Amino acid sequence: MGDRAATAMANDGMSSVEMMKAEREERKLRMKRQRESEQERTGKVSKPFNEPPKPVDRLRNVGPLPEGWLDCPGAGDPICNLIPSKVPLGETFNELLDAGKRYSRRHVVRHQQAVGRKIGLVIDLTNTSRYYNSSEWTNDGVKYVKVACRGRNEVPDPESVNTFVFEVMRFFSNLHAKNDTTGNKFVLVHCTHGHNRTGFMIVHYLMRTNNCRSVEEGVRMFAKVRPPGIYKQHYIEDLYKFYHEPMPQPLVCPSTPEWKRPETPDLNCVATTDPDEDDEEDFMAALQFTEEKPAAAPMTNDDVLGDAIPDDQQREMQKLCYWAVGVPVPQGYGMSNLRFPGSQPVSLDRKNLQLLRQKYYYATWKADGTRYMMLIARDGVYLIDRNFRFRRVQLRFPLKGQVGKDALAPTHHLTLMDGEMVIDKLPDGQLKRRYLVYDLMMVNHQTISKLPFNERWRMIEKEVNEPRLHELNVLRGRLYDYQQEAFSVRRKDFWMLSATEKILHKFIPQLCHEADGLILQGFDDPYVPRTHEGLLKWKYAHMNSVDFMLKIAPNGSNYSLMLMDSGKLRQLDHAKVVFPEGADVQSMANKVIECSYDPELETWNYMRMRPDKETPNAYHVYLKVMGSIKDNITEEDLQKEFQEILKLPLYTHRIARDNQAAHHAQQARRK
C-alpha cells in the first residue's frame, strides 16, 4: 500500500486541523527522503532548496528583509496629512541592500522635504522592533508612537484603533492650539508594507473625523493615494461590519500586488514565508483557534461593554464631563482622584417625603440595570461607568433636521446624557440590551445642566431620540444598519404622581426587565451632580440594599462589611452577613457586594456582586438606607401620601397646565 493511500485511510475520522497536520508531516518526510536520495546519488550534502545564505556575523541580529519589501513602493501620497508608507529600515540593513533599494529614515525625510512636507509624528504599526531604533526619529525632534498590531490573519483590535485615532487627532489638535507656524506637518503611518494595517487604520481615522461619508468612500480614497490600497478582503469586511454599513455584494478587492506574491517554493511547490516577518503567524494555530472558538456567554448586566480608550483621552473626557455638570476640576488632579459625577438619588424616608409637598414631582420606575452616563462625540460614543471609566461603542446619533435619504446625516458632537442599561427578555426568549436615557446635561458642547429637568427631559426626545428614529426609518438598513448596534436607545418615561399605582401594579409587572421600586424626580430641578438630596428612590422593602466591600479574615471564617467614610474604608460594627448555601464567598474578598437587610434577624443578606463598582457606598448613604428601612414606608403609605399631596394647589395647577399642554401637542401632531 502506497504512502498516499495509507495516509488517506488514516485520515478517516480526522478533523480538518488533524488532517492538515498529518499532511504537513507527510510532506516533511517526503522532502527528507528526497534529500537523502540526492545525497546518496551525488555524494554531496545539499542545503534545503529554500534555505537562505547565512548572514555575516555583524548582521546576525538584523534578520531577513520583510518578504516583498524590496519592490514595494516606498510611500503613498498624503491623505488628510497622513502619509502611508512601508517600514523604513535602519542603517544596519544597508549591507543587505543595493544603494538604489535602500529606504531608511533619511530617505523618507529627504523625499518628503523635497516636496515641502515636514514629518512631525510617526506611528509604527509593526509587531516588532527589529526594523529600526525609534530614537532615529525622536533624536530628530519627531514624535514616535508605537501601536503594535499583528497582521495577516488578524485585523488591528479596536483598542489599537482607538489609540491610533486619538494620537493622530491629538497631534493635529496640539498644532492648532499652538498656532504652529513651523510649516505644514504630516504624520507618517507605516506597517511593514503600508497597505493593509496602514490602510485599515487610516480609513478608521477618515470615518471618525468625517473626512469620508462611508467605508466604501474611505477605502477608495486610500486606494487612490496608495495603490492598490487594502488588498486583503477580511480587512475591508471588518471595516464594513465595525461601522454597521451594508457590505457590497459581491465585495471586490484588489489583487495581491506582484511584489508581495511569494516567489520561493519548497519542494512541494508550497510558497514559503519569512518566519521573522512581523505580520505573519502560524496558519495552523489560527485555524485551530477558529475551530475551537468558545460559544458566546449568556448576556448579563455585569458584561463589560465597548472598547478601552487611551488614558490621556479618558482624562480629557473626564474634565469635559466635570465642566458639563458644573463640577470644578481640582488642581493637580489625576485619574485616581476624579470621581463619577453622575447624580445619585437618596432613599425615601419620613423626613424627605415632605419634599414632595414643597416641589412638583414626577415618578418613574426604578430599573434594576447598570448605570452609565453617555458621551456622544464626533469620533464615537462613550459609555461612562460608575468607576468613571470610558469605553467606546459604535452608535449613531444624527443631528436634528439633518436626516436625508441619500447620505448619512452629520452627528452630535459633545452631547452628554445620563441613563441606565437594562436587558429586556423578549417574548421569544431572546435577550436584548436597551439604554434608557433619563437626563441630558450637554447638547453639542452647550451645557444645559442648569435648565429645569422637564425641559432637559423633553430635549432628549427632540434632540436625540427623534432624529435617530427618523434616520432609522428613512434608511431602512441602507447606508447604515441600526440593528447591528450593541444596544437600542430610548427615552425613559416619567409620569405624574397620580399614575404611581398604575406604574407599580400594571406597568412594572409587564416590563421585560427587572425593576425594584420608584424614582421621584423634581420636575423643575437642575441637574445636581453626585448626591442629590431632592432625588428620591423608594424600593420594595425586601429590595432596600447597601453596597459593601467584603473583607475576609485570614482564617477565612470571619467576614467584615466595609463602607467609605471620608475617603477611607470603615468597618460596619456588629454587622452579620448571610450568604446562600454553596456561594463561593472566598472569590468575593475585597469585592463590592450588594446586600439587603432583614430587620427581624438583623442580618445583611447577600444579593449579588457589583463588578461595576470599585468602592462601596459611603457611610452617609448607609445611614439613609437604614433610615428608610426603619421608617418602613409601605406602598400603602406611599399611595395615601400621594393622594393628599395631589390635592395641594402646587399640584392641581401644574397638572391642569400640563394636561392642557399635552392636549395642544396632540392636536398639533394630528395636523
UniProtKB/TrEMBL annotation:
Using the UniProt annotation, give all residue ranges assigned to the region (Disordered). Answer: 1-59
What this protein is called in its record is mRNA guanylyltransferase
Per the UniProt record, which EC number(s) apply here? 2.7.7.50
Molecular functions per Gene Ontology: ATP binding; GTP binding; mRNA 5'-triphosphate monophosphatase activity; mRNA guanylyltransferase activity; phosphoprotein phosphatase activity
Q: Name one GO biological process term.
A: 7-methylguanosine mRNA capping
The record, for PROSITE patterns, names: TYR_PHOSPHATASE_1 (PS00383), TYR_PHOSPHATASE_2 (PS50056)
Q: Which reaction does it catalyse?
A: a 5'-end diphospho-ribonucleoside in mRNA + GTP + H(+) = a 5'-end (5'-triphosphoguanosine)-ribonucleoside in mRNA + diphosphate
